Amino acid sequence: MRKTLIESLFRGKLTEPAPHLSDEEKSALIGTMNRLAQRRFGRSLAIRHVDAGSCNACELEIVALNNALYDLERFGLKIVASPRHADVLMVTGSLTHNMGAALRLTYDAMPPPKWVVATGDCACTGGLFAQSPVCIGALGQLLPVDLHIPGCPPHPAMLLRGLITLISCLGDVAHESGRD
Amino acid sequence: MNSARWEDVTTNLADHATTFIAVWGERNDESGAVNLAVRRKGERSIEIVSRSAPDSHYPSVGRHHPSAILMERVIQDVHGLVADGLPDTRPWLDHGFWPHSRAGTSYNFKPAFGPGVHQIPVGPVHAGTIEPGHFRFSVNGEIIIRLEARLGYVHRDVLGLMRGKAIDDAATLVGRVSGDSTVAYAFAFARAVEQALDLAVPARASALRGIMAELERLANHLGDFGAICNDSGFALLNIHAAVLRERILRLAALVFGHRLMMDFIVPGGVLRDLNEEGATALKSGLPSVLAAFGRLVDLYEKTASLQDRVVGTGRLDPAVANLLGCGGYVGRAAGQDFDARRDMPYAPYDGIAVRVPVFNSADVDARVRVRIAEIHESVRILLSLLGTMPKSSIRVALPNDLTARSGSALVEGFRGDIFAFVRVCGGRLSDAFVRDPSWFLWPALEAAIEGNIVADFPLCNKSFNAAYAGCDL
Ligand code: SF4
Known about the structure:
The complex is a heterodimer.
Chain A: H1 2-11, H2 23-29, E1 36-37, E2 45-51, H3 57-64, E3 77-79, E4 88-92, H4 97-109, E5 115-119, H5 120-125, E6 147-149, H6 156-172, E7 174-175
Parallel strand pairs in A: 2-3, 2-4, 4-5, 5-6
Antiparallel strand pairs in A: 1-7
Chain B: H1 3-15, E1 18-28, E2 31-40, E3 46-52, E4 57-59, H2 69-79, E5 82-84, E6 117-122, E7 134-140, E8 143-150, H3 158-162, H4 167-174, H5 182-197, H6 203-231, H7 235-256, E9 265-266, E10 269-270, H8 276-302, H9 304-310, H10 318-324, H11 328-332, H12 340-343, H13 364-387, E11 405-412, E12 417-425, E13 428-435, H14 438-449, H15 457-464, H16 469-472
Parallel strand pairs in B: 4-5
Antiparallel strand pairs in B: 1-2, 2-3, 6-7, 7-8, 9-10, 11-12, 12-13
Helix pairs in contact in B: 4-5, 5-6, 6-7, 6-13, 6-15, 7-8, 8-13, 13-15, 14-15
Iron/sulfur cluster binds at residues 54-55, 57-58, 92-93, 120-122, 127, 152-153 of chain A.
């Protein structure tokens, strides 16, 4: 054990530099967040993830965000267990009817202000399952979506870009009335 | 449609002369039919028996064989066919929320009685970034006396959506049954279609399929190894194992162009070839990942506090593993010496002597050790495949066949054997079925957890790592 620990100390960190985001890229991702108003919000967000009908590949890439190479927490972004601690609801999957009630309850349990991120093609548009008789389809049909991160599954770097965009926009502005 | 044979085969299941693979339903307008797939111990082919379900009834398989019960509950929900004699007729996928639901929204969990017994409901939304499912624990103090899993939350009707699709479009859907096994599902589906069409795949395509399948196994086993250690409270190993998993995924992305290698295996061959640069990256990258992993295994074995958590925890009675037909690391940790790559060989494994690790202690530790051995074996197989890459095309066109044909295949995914069945006609899919190994892992987990403490559930659950999406479909 000592050997592993000492080597890790001297090897230098594995974590990679943060992705650079151009203004165009930010505005493309955040296109739907026009309900933001001017007010400060801290540069830290707690994220609650819910699988609402995913094939589980989107989850694998969200989990990868916590590995040493992407190191999500250095951006002030933390995945939390309870919706009561969460600012952001990150939803994956094609929104099955069977998950509708649980997703709604999770959203309602989050204290305002809160934001919703549709993660992966399934959540963004219903994806390949949009026509399924047992799916509601795009997340937007059930909850107000603030950010769409496309991909099947989205690359972890893409997930990072999306979440950094969210936090950097919230750094300058916060939510308008009605939801906070 | 053979009802005498149906009786014969289902009775044999009760004698354990055969291993149950799956039972699934079909419905064409008013008439229904059911299909049963089994493999006889020691034989290399799958037997499929079909029979009609007059007036929507057929004799239950589950009354002889417990592994069939959940599947027959699905047949009841999705196809409206009733299994006569089925011991448990509660709905499974139908939670009462579909526009066409037949079931109500309430659900009766199995009762547990006794002084001090109480229930802990968990889910469908769990604390971690995992799939949704509900667990109902009946506990006495800290001890779990009964666990009942209720799934179906991520039922997307993948099979229904595949029906009528062009073969290639159906392959895209099958790759999203369970994302962590996307390669294995595409592989099983492709082989079933190829069997139906009597199509031989170029040798290079088979070798590439093997490379993708082993990379997928490696990535998942490395991830599981770390996650199991993490759930025992030893985060350090998880951090290191997650980096190794990431290295495998990046190798896959570098070599083939997608981290999870989705949509590359298609009926007729593969869509991505391996160039010199990719082969070199794998030949140097894999041994270095393995060397780093060896250090983690050393730490796993020598950390007493970790061993204390995993040894003896979540023991699955090997007799139960045998009865249920558990495959993969769960079965092999409990004395079940079966691996489709060796025992029902298919290309490219027919040219490789696959070594199959088997343990008998059947606890969390044994399930970790099967994975450790398989990580080594996967790297060996990969290097051997890379050393003998045949030169040929990587895909052949599917024949434009207008007759209705069917085919099936069993492919060893990282969790265990995945079964695929197809009916094709004129380049389209008239019916499809896939069975995840997790169908047998969930009932096995319910059995293994009895008598363990509640706090050990996440650890046991992770060591099984059964799929939700794979069963919910
Ligand atoms: S977007 Fe793709 S990867 Fe994500 S859940 Fe849907 S099918 Fe799976």
